[in-house]
Amino acid sequence: MSLDKELSEYTAKTHLSRALHDEALAVMPGGNSRTTTFFDPYPFYFQRGQGAHIWDADGNDRLDFNGNYTSLILGHAPPDVIKAVQQVVEAGLSFPGPTEHEIRLAEMLTRRVPSVEQIRFTNSGTEATLNAVRLARAFTGRPKLAKFEGAYHGTHDWVMVSVSPDPKAAGSRKRPKAVASSAGVPPAVLKHTVVLPWNDAEACEQIVEAEAANLAAVIVDPLLSNGGTIPPAEGFLERLRALTERHGIVLIFDEVISFRVAWGGAQERLGIRPDLTTFGKIVGGGLPVGAFGGRADIMGFYDPRKGGARISHGGTFNANPATMAAGVATLNALTPEAYARLDALADRLRGGVTRLLQATRRRGQVTGLGSLFTLHWTSEPLTDYRSSRPKDPEMPIRVFMGLLNEGILLTQRGLGACSCAMSEEDVDRFVNALARVLARG
Length: 441
Ligand SMILES: Cc1ncc(COP(=O)(O)O)c(C=O)c1O
What we know:
Aspartate Aminotransferase, domain 1; binds pyridoxal-5'-phosphate; seven-stranded mixed β-sheet; Aspartate Aminotransferase, domain 2; alpha/beta; four-stranded mixed β-sheet; 38% helix
């Protein structure tokens, strides 16, 4: 089916969402507050979520493999999390100081992730990476930050570089150029950003060796989650760890998404100990959250005792009790058995999609680890951001729209996640729906 046909089926099913979008247009640019969730001609409006399902304003029921961009690892409205939040908010919504809930979540995270000796909370993953980068600069006294081409770390200026650049404007594969990912990112940011090619250890070593004296940190999403969920090649992160250690460069693991792949996050699964780690999404149990933590000697820059903190970190709603309680209740439910079940569900999905693509001789692949997966529409070996770009640029949105019409919600770029609320039948429904979408065109 052509994209036009998929769109007309979508618009025919979503009249009330269109009416809401028209109202929104009068008061918000493009009618929304979240660039990534917009799609043409208008996004549908969410009304309710329960378990693995969401319902829109027109009453359409969809299976949710988006999970608020991988945040909702237990599915929608898990009763224990709702109960924990209800109990907390009845005692007051927020306070001008700490509550016990913050200690409990900090204890859980530091226990799960041994590299995180001390931790602080924010309200978003963006604030978490912002603070981790500032901290690395303060600790090392160096100005530059290295990041990987294709990696997303939130929306502050320091990481809005080379997120999804046009390769034609981004220099060579082995020596990528820093390209602004948004209007308004000043040239000073580009001057202080070093861009690295994912999974090319030799090229990374050459670039980092040349810049080492000025490099405060390398920030890395250990699964390149938002850049295609392309797990690291064997030995790649080990070499990056050794390289950064040799040069006194702070290694930041951005586990905002990848933390969901194991009890102790991707770092446990991959056996690497970073200096700092950033968190978000699942650790807030569905409420706004971020956190950053790591070596106690580095985190000490935030210690306000004895003459004051060297880095100020305010935030009216940092560590707010509702988020902290939702995080505790969520992590409590994430037992080793829950991770094993999530892995099995996503393995089943990846296996089903791979067999489908082979049987239909489609140009495509599915990648992922643990409960995460990403659909790709190329048959090139997937090693980095550039190799993951689809041969037909319209394909991801055609599949996204086609799946929506089949009652399945994914992300537009093909990233998805299984939740604890899903069953094997749900996963098989995904594969069968994808088969129908592909059969249409
Ligand atoms: C790896 C990664 N880091 C940081 C962020 C930013 O988190 P937030 O959207 O909570 O600001 C995201 C968001 O998707 C992310 O995927």
